[in-house]
Specification:
Largest sheet: 7 strands, mixed
Distance between the termini: 11 Å
Structural class: alpha+beta
CATH architecture: 2-Layer Sandwich
Number of helices: 10
């Protein structure tokens, strides 16, 4: 049975280009680094994964200490990642080796982007679930609120616990990048080309976007992936922008990895590894094994979806999205078990 058949229909079946974005999403949050390293050639592969892996900042005590969901009996033996993009009020970087401010301080950061990624045991198929930031969910110890508040109130442990309880899955690894890192990464690759379908204006960000293809630098790119005002789909359009941008960013990164320009490639990889942070359970050996496995991952065996939404609703004066929790859990269970 193919990965496409095992993946339930959360929304209309994605086309090949959209499926290809899943690999790109993985690349952005650290896997990008090690996959690009692999392109440098077998002779430098082992040195490079240790060198660049050492530069990726580890997050101590990222996981909750209480009881966690068990793996289903028919679990496929794969690995689940929770990847987050953090909107920080800090004027200084909070993720990566350039960080000079704390990754988490109560009330100072929220997650603007949140994705679950599952790789099956042989790392030949991947499934990605995007969780909208406005999803109204139970947050342990805090009642119900938007899912992005979990990181604000309790940092990575509460974020992971919230997602685990929502989906009844076990998160194996966590990765995060803040907007400082996002802008630095975008500028490090010389900007990212993005094609905009229609003119729009975001009155909150006070930024105007014009139709056409643009080479976006850090500030403009950040505004684009954050835009949810002035577009018809609101939060869901923002998710589409993020997927589109990540796809183009990863293409840009891979296009700039060159055997004939090792110094330039090295500078780019140095810049990328300075932007991200991962949990301290992810060793350089884990990264190396991930590289080896993902080199065999075909884009046709990757699938992307957004959490099933019942409706939008105003709750406590806030715009929220109500999820179909039962469907969400059943469908993610099918992902983890290969449909068994």
């Amino acid at each position: 049975m193919s990965a496409r058949e095992r993946w339930p229909r959360w929304e209309p079946r994605p086309d090949a280009a959209r499926r290809h974005r899943v690999l790109r999403v993985l690349l952005l949050l650290g896997v990008t680094v090690v996959l690009a390293v692999a392109a440098l050639g077998a002779g430098t592969f082992w040195w490079a994964t240790d060198h660049y892996g050492d530069q990726v900042t580890r997050i101590p005590h990222a996981f909750p200490t209480g009881p966690r969901p068990p793996r289903p009996a028919a679990h496929d033996g794969g690995t689940t990642f929770l990847l987050a993009g953090v909107d920080s009020r800090s004027e200084q970087p909070t993720t990566g080796s350039d960080a000079v401010a704390a990754l988490w301080r109560r009330g100072a950061q929220r997650t603007d982007t949140l994705m679950l990624v599952h790789l099956d045991e042989d790392e030949r198929t991947a499934s990605v679930l995007s969780l909208p930031r406005d999803s109204w969910v139970p947050i342990p110890g805090h009642g119900s609120a938007k899912i992005n508040a979990a990181f604000s109130w309790g940092g990575p442990p509460l974020m992971i616990e919230t997602v685990e309880q929502l989906t009844r899955t076990r998160v194996d690894h966590f990765g995060v990048v803040d907007w400082h890192g996002f802008k630095a990464l975008t500028d490090a690759v010389g900007g990212v080309p993005v094609t905009i379908d229609r003119d729009s204006y975001d009155p909150v960000l006070q930024h105007r976007f014009t139709a056409g293809t643009h080479l976006m630098r850090g500030e403009e790119a950040l505004a684009y992936v954050r835009q949810r005002h002035g577009v018809p789909g609101g939060e869901l359009d923002r998710i589409k922008h993020q997927q589109q941008f990540l796809h183009s960013l990863a293409d840009r990164i891979r296009g700039r990895v060159s055997l004939t320009d090792p110094l330039g490639t090295g500078r780019m990889l140095d810049a990328i590894t300075r932007t991200v942070s991962v949990d301290d359970r992810m060793s350089n050996g884990d990264l190396r094994d991930l590289v080896i496995g993902l080199r065999h991952l075909d884009a046709g065996d990757t699938t992307f979806a957004t959490a099933p939404i019942v409706r939008s609703r105003m709750i406590e004066g806030q715009y929220t999205l109500v999820l179909d929790t039962g469907k969400l859990r059943a469908q993610w269970h099918a992902v983890e078990t290969g449909g068994r």
